[in-house]
């Protein structure tokens, strides 16, 4: 069973660390003129705010780039990584604070052919959205959608009522203090084949 996030908007007034595990199993849909693509979320990471989380874009304060993180919850925060890939996050916490959940991986459950047109017709189903950059490419989420409502005309989000076996780890690909055991804020569905491979570190930090 699924519950529209619009019916549970108060849940997103909490921090990303609290919200992140509850997004597992949720269905995110992007609507476009070509139809719609729906993703079942299987892996996420939580990022907190100013002075709290050295792995977060908002650690040092608000900038034009991260301003959406300080806005109202249930909006999309997008950014470029390595100058070529778009990553997508769902903003949490009351307006004025900064907290977001990175969508790391999922399973395309509707609009598979459209997702394959975006990613490649021979890409295996489990790999269509297995990783944050693959996820946004499969769903055709552009950088320009940053700030979009997750409960509007373009995006809709439904939370799962099921009980899931949730695994945790330190965040993947984050170097420096933000990637340490002090921040075990990667959450994933145990045993799901669409969960992305864990990387212990990366040559550059998320921020």
From TrEMBL:
A biological-process GO annotation: base-excision repair
Pfam family, one: Pur_DNA_glyco
Keywords: DNA damage, DNA repair, Hydrolase
Presence of keyword Hydrolase: yes
First-tier enzyme category under EC: hydrolase
UniProt EC number: 3.2.2.-
GO MF annotation terms: alkylbase DNA N-glycosylase activity; DNA binding
Family to which the UniProt record says this protein belongs: Belongs to the DNA glycosylase MPG family.
Protein name stated in the entry: Putative 3-methyladenine DNA glycosylase
Organism name: Agreia bicolorata
Native organism taxonomy: Bacteria, Bacillati, Actinomycetota, Actinomycetes, Micrococcales
């Amino acid at each position: 069973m699924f519950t529209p996030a619009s019916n549970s908007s108060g849940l997103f007034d909490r921090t990303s660390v609290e919200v992140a595990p509850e997004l597992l199993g949720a269905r995110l849909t992007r609507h476009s003129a070509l139809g719609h693509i729906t993703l079942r979320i299987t892996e996420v990471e939580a990022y907190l705010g100013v002075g709290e989380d050295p792995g977060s874009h908002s650690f040092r304060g608000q900038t034009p780039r991260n301003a959406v993180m300080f806005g109202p919850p249930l909006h999309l925060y997008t950014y470029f990584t390595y100058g070529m890939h778009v990553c997508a996050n769902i903003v949490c916490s009351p307006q004025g604070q900064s907290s977001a959940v990175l969508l790391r991986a999922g399973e395309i459950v509707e609009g598979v052919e459209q997702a394959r047109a975006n990613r490649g017709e021979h890409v295996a189903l489990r790999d269509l959205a297995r990783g944050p950059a693959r996820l946004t490419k499969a769903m055709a989420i552009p950088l320009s959608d940053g700030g979009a409502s997750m409960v509007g005309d373009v995006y809709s989000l439904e939370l799962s009522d099921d009980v899931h076996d949730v695994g945790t780890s330190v965040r993947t690909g984050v170097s420096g203090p933000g990637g340490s055991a002090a921040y075990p804020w990667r959450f994933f569905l145990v045993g799901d084949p669409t969960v992305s491979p864990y990387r212990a570190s990366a040559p550059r930090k998320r921020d």
